[in-house]
Design a protein that fits this description.
The protein has 373 residues and is an alpha+beta fold. The chain has eight helices and 19 strands. Helix 1 runs parallel beside helix 5 and helix 1 crosses helix 8. The structure holds flavin-adenine dinucleotide.
Amino acid sequence: MRYSVGIIGLGAMGSATAWSLAQQGVSVIGFEQFGLGHQHGSSHGKTRIIRSVYFEGEVYAPLVDAAYRAWTRIEETWGQAFYRKTGGLDISLADDGGVFHDALSAAQAAGRSFDVLEGSQIEDRFPALDLGGRGRAVYAADSGLLDSDDATNWMRDMAARRGAVFHANCPVQSWTRTARGFEIQTSTGSYQVRKLIIAAGAWVGQLLPELAPVLVPERQVVAWYHTEQPGLASLPIFQLETRDRERYYAFPPHRGYGLKLGLYNHRRQRGPEFIEPSGIDDDDRRLLEHGLDLCLPGVDRKPDNIIECRFTNAPDERFVIGKWPEDEDLIILSPCSGHGYKFAPVIGDIAADLALEVEPCVEIGEFAVKRVV
Ligand SMILES: Cc1cc2nc3c(=O)[nH]c(=O)nc-3n(C[C@H](O)[C@H](O)[C@H](O)COP(=O)(O)OP(=O)(O)OC[C@H]3O[C@@H](n4cnc5c(N)ncnc54)[C@H](O)[C@@H]3O)c2cc1C
């Protein structure tokens, strides 16, 4: 059988794309090298942050609006609530307040509602935090967290119910251009598709060698801490920029899981070798403990769980989404740099629009593939 669209990679982006296409009655086949919902890529994990104030830059504002609409639509149309509104803080301890200023400018430019909290006002509002009276923060009430594993599984299930065909534990070994589309080769067979979408996360360079030097995997570490400290459950999600311009991010306890903490970019371990796990060591633990020292000194240092994972970085740290410059039928989805999850249903719709040759539902010119190859 010949399919209209083939998708390589069934993490959040591939799954959302399959769901969007299947809803529109498009025949779609997807391939995943591991089991569905596996722990080796970028998408696994119970939760991901969604922020209404986006300090990464104005270029993301239309995506942010579309993401909120998409998660609301999922809730209202499909009765599935994956979003918990916790509020969100972007705190900076740095003298020049990088993240604070970026968040403030982004909030003003996008017309978001927000509060500015300075020094002890942060702890007055959120007494579980102990910043020693330091820092400046932008607080956005609409930020929160998403039940990401549940949401990704749900999107994939919905796609399968509408006829999407998924091959799990089925690595794509290669693909070739044909006169009428593409042939996808796996160890169990070859498949013909009219359009090809590559949503392969950290492995994208193995399928498209031109992208290997520019979309580089980076090792990350995240931990969960058990805590009965009062007030933690009502913490917002938050980013904490240190004086050295490192950035921690944290989630309040949620659905039986403790406080979640990570250091964005962690040890900056980048390169193809970081696709494979290397094991957690004392330096990993110490880095996260330092984050606790800065804002939650009462939390027990021994994590309930600590894991390593990876995301992909483009040189300008912006997403790479769009058609391949020399082939209109080949679509690349790499919402990299560790903040793409919240946009999954939107990026799925955008990819479906590109495959169906209609104007993308959100402007994506700033994320064009041609800027990196
Ligand atoms: C630690 C961490 C924290 C994050 N926190 C946030 C957050 O709070 N908020 C937020 O919005 N985003 C966050 N992100 C980013 C977000 O999770 C990612 O942007 C998103 O998960 C990327 O999804 P993906 O589908 O592109 O990649 P992946 O989930 O990696 O999926 C790619 C898939 O392709 C498969 N594949 C690769 N090669 C092949 C092949 N040859 N054949 C078949 N299958 C193949 C892989 O096995 C994989 O399943 C975080 C990421 C990390 C790692």
